[in-house]
User: Fold these one by one.
Assistant:
Number 1:
Amino acid sequence: MASVEIAGVSKQYAGAWAVDRVSITVPDGSFFSLLGPSGSGKTTLLRLVAGFLRPDAGTVRIGPAIVNEVPPHKRDIGMVFQQYALFPHQTVLDNVAFGLEMRGMGRKAREAKAREALEMVRMAGRERAYPKELSGGQQQRIAIARSIAARPAVWLLDEPLSALDRKLRIEMQSELRSLQKLLGITTIYVTHDQEEALAMSDGIAIFRDGRIAQQGSAEDLYERPADGFVADFLGSANLIEGVVARGPQGLHVVAEGEAFRPSADHILRENERVHLAIRPERLDLSGAPGAAQGLPARVESVLYLGSDLRVVLRTRGGALLVARAPSRGTALAEGAEVFAAFKPEDAAIVAH
Ligand SMILES: Nc1ncnc2c1ncn2[C@@H]1O[C@H](COP(=O)(O)OP(=O)(O)OP(=O)(O)O)[C@@H](O)[C@H]1O
């Protein structure tokens, strides 16, 4: 197995930087996601690691070796694409064995390896089928089996589940993760689905316009977003404008005329303009103003989502807030006046 180290890598298309000085280290055996909106450079970076593209600057290492000049088939990688890219006129077994043949393995050995891979993706018994006889989910399992049959050191997946329906996607997320752990394979996973990245990854890099807005563990990014873009991208954070002021208790954030204490791990600079970023599920609408900190607000709409409600609120200062409240035992009507409370540790303070 091998780590992947991307150091200062850039790539431009027709004068525009698709990937701009990106550095990421993916430790041996870990699962790392590239997350970001469409066009932010995720696929370009994955193709640079795969060797389909050459960086204009920087280096890509797989294990100890710099691979900038190494063609894809010599990089010891397995790849899965959004579109399964199976050969329609070949059987499942031949599709999975294809890469092994390219590596010069004899028929017996490659069929044994291919069967082993099919067992891992729970497709044993379908060796003689053709791709068109399989569902989309099953075809993707075949593509996954093909990518791991040779037991590569590095696994690169580009939105592998985005063509599947939601239920199957969630099932496949945990299967992919289990398989990744079983094989101990170093993995880079491209997705634009924040829930998927949070659920699956040891590490995540959030892309914005070819650059990394922030990288870290799922918890780091969710609880301590570096800025409003990251906070919002990772799950519709509420952003309330404020400014850092000095009071008798030290530095705090003033927003809509109220003082908010920072949690212990925030470093504030006087007069800095900031946002308080609060997750919808961390707003508590159940109480009256009292010991808790928060903002008075009026309910604009209540949407029933099954297990919970989505409540849209407008603060007196004009900020729009979204809260999640349990659907049982919550009686909220449009126009009601409420107090939206939150704990200091649930409000990340992010750059404006
Ligand atoms: N072959 C190409 N020629 C010219 N420009 C390209 C090419 N491939 C990508 N780009 C541009 O590079 C930028 C990054 O694209 P990239 O496909 O890496 O983004 P992405 O984050 O993977 O997006 P998506 O989620 O939509 O696939 C975009 O502005 C895109 O238009």
Number 2:
Amino acid sequence: MQHDPALDRFILALPKAELHLHIEGSLEPELMMALARRNRVDLPFRTVEEVRAAYQFSRLQDFLDIYYQGAAVLRTAEDFRDLGRAYFDRAAADSVRHAEIFFDPQTHTARGIPIGIVMEGLLAAVEEARVRHGITGGLILCFLRHLDEEEAFATFRAAEPWLDRLLGVGLDSSELGHPPAKFARVFAAAGAAGLKRVAHAGEEGPPAYVTEALDLLQVDRLDHGNRALESPELVARLARDAMTLTVCPLSNLKLCVVDAMDAHPIDRMLALGLRATINSDDPAYFGGYVADNYRAAAAGRGLDRAALGQLARNSFLGAFLPEADLVQHLCALDAFLTAH
Ligand SMILES: Nc1ncnc2[nH]cnc12
Ligand SMILES: [Zn+2]
């Protein structure tokens, strides 16, 4: 496949929403080292190069081990704001107009950092992004699925003062052996509190986990969802319900969910009528932000402007945006696509 610089420019300028981004996964090695110094946290790495060299994964758990270790440098509200600011600055350069961001409070509360510190810093970053870049943003509180539901409930209760400033709840961390059913009650409580619900499912886990996320967690959106493709009935259901899938091509490659980018199913998902979107997941660990993910998928699968435009349209359709804002984003996207 010939490299096409004009397509790169199109992708970079394409207005888009990002719906699957773990803020802790946007911690670049440079900021990790700087925060380690600022907070006097010991890291098992001496240089940025050593950190990057450690990012070799053959499955999800390899990555999670190092990702939780890196998050230990985050200690103050200022740290979380700096982390959020760095992400939003980078996202603005990729023409992200709206971002719905995951955060993992249990990774921090387990180290004695109060959830209020995390909330204060991240909410400040969201507000700053609106002022500095005109990007709208929202936060999705994720429960760690390798922990038990009682701990998820404790986190949900601790987040009570901030519930009106959250978009929703999510479910992440080690998928295999931790089916969605384990969190049915806490997701029901979140739904009753008026929050949106999303869950990682079908990244490494089987199609049955996707079905559980739909039936037992009542998710409004599905994170990854790759392995749903193994079940034609499930694909038909997801297409019929216009369920958004937040797909992460470079993550899939790095975590060996796909063998190569030219084997990625993103175009097959679109052809099956699925509302697939492209996202970066943990960009500091997987080698690219959202535009890099669009570029990698486009190069790997020969996506044209129409397909890329559809993916961007899906990103707005799948966002938890008020109707009037959605219409504005879609009009701006149509104007862009007409002009390009
Ligand atoms: N891709 C991913 N899957 C599950 N948990 C995660 N936490 C951060 N990134 C994740
Ligand atoms: Zn993820």
